[in-house]
Amino acid sequence: KPEPGEHIQDPAAGTAGFLIAAHEYIKSQTDDLYELSDKDKTFQTTQAYVGIELVPGTRRLALMNCLLHGMEGDAEGVVHLGNALGQTGAGLGKADVILANPPFGTSKGGDASITRDDLTYKTSNKQLAFLQHIYRNLKPGGRAAVVLPDNVLFEAGVGTDVRRDLMNKCNLHTILRLPTGIFYAQGVKTNVLFFTKGSAADKYQEENCTENVWVYDLRTNMPSFGKRTPFGDQHLRPFENVYGDSDRKEGEYSFHSDAIELPEHSDENEGIDPRLAHSRWRSFSRQWIAEHKGDSLDISWLKDSDSVDAANLPEPSVLAGEAMGELRAALGELEALATALEGDA
């Protein structure tokens, strides 16, 4: 919930959708900014929002999009041309709110090489580099919501170091496991990480800031969303309801989660109430994450109906034989089709 007077950033702005959404939310809370003084209104339209976009064509669309929504920005506009993982990003001021969906894969039209020398953990993984930039660039008490693919949650080595540093410097209070088809390419699994610089009790705290991580599973046994199956407010509303509770409690059973099977072996379900194991909304302590997950944040406890249990798969030789049989059958059908086409000719 961004507020008037806050500095709001998106280091991977694209066409500025997140920044515009923040602006529209603030307008909805201030009667289209009419409740603000002239000075504050000028701040909202010229200084409140800064984005960075690598690709010139995309940035032009972003600038036009912002102007259509009354967002002027500074001399360069709301969205600056540059690389957030280079000197453009290093030169950004601290932010109260950062909203971002860092690019997945390679960008067309720009070089997204990581040239920053101020990031603690050197990595070629751009999402891990963006994540470091974001939590480093928050003011004390600053808030962030970042869309990230699954590999950021479980990648070992530098990935573990970055997650550990994030949970140390920030209060990583919530992870939303999203269905497929919302961000990135079809089939890529994504999450939204919500965190605040400092701890819940002290925004200036610099160590051991995460006590508990709440996870909402909006992925298991959910459809793959896209043009034919659009993702709407009704799908997000159960999460919004529990996310906003000042006194959070585990136990949320939307989309028939109480009927979802549980995996045979799951550290997440050890020693808990059987009904709670079916909840989409669970809390895990920082200590539990360290001891049971090795600081991986790939936390799941429900069994997807489409998942494959590796323990029950046939021997590799059997699988290879089945695949060869299917390939031979397909090849035979192609040869028959080719013969028929030659006969027609």
Automatic annotation (TrEMBL):
<keyword id="KW-0680">Restriction system</keyword>
<dbReference type="InterPro" id="IPR003356">
    <property type="entry name" value="DNA_methylase_A-5"/>
</dbReference>
<dbReference type="Pfam" id="PF02384">
    <property type="entry name" value="N6_Mtase"/>
</dbReference>
<dbReference type="GO" id="GO:0009307">
    <property type="term" value="P:DNA restriction-modification system"/>
</dbReference>
<feature type="domain" description="DNA methylase adenine-specific">
    <location>
        <begin position="2"/>
        <end position="262"/>
    </location>
</feature>
<comment type="similarity">
    <text>Belongs to the N(4)/N(6)-methyltransferase family.</text>
</comment>
<dbReference type="GO" id="GO:0008170">
    <property type="term" value="F:N-methyltransferase activity"/>
</dbReference>
<dbReference type="InterPro" id="IPR029063">
    <property type="entry name" value="SAM-dependent_MTases_sf"/>
</dbReference>
<protein>
    <recommendedName>
        <fullName>site-specific DNA-methyltransferase (adenine-specific)</fullName>
        <ecNumber>2.1.1.72</ecNumber>
    </recommendedName>
</protein>
<dbReference type="GO" id="GO:0009007">
    <property type="term" value="F:site-specific DNA-methyltransferase (adenine-specific) activity"/>
</dbReference>
<dbReference type="GO" id="GO:0032259">
    <property type="term" value="P:methylation"/>
</dbReference>
<keyword id="KW-0949">S-adenosyl-L-methionine</keyword>
<dbReference type="GO" id="GO:0003677">
    <property type="term" value="F:DNA binding"/>
</dbReference>
<keyword id="KW-0808">Transferase</keyword>
<dbReference type="InterPro" id="IPR051537">
    <property type="entry name" value="DNA_Adenine_Mtase"/>
</dbReference>
<keyword id="KW-0489">Methyltransferase</keyword>
<dbReference type="InterPro" id="IPR002052">
    <property type="entry name" value="DNA_methylase_N6_adenine_CS"/>
</dbReference>
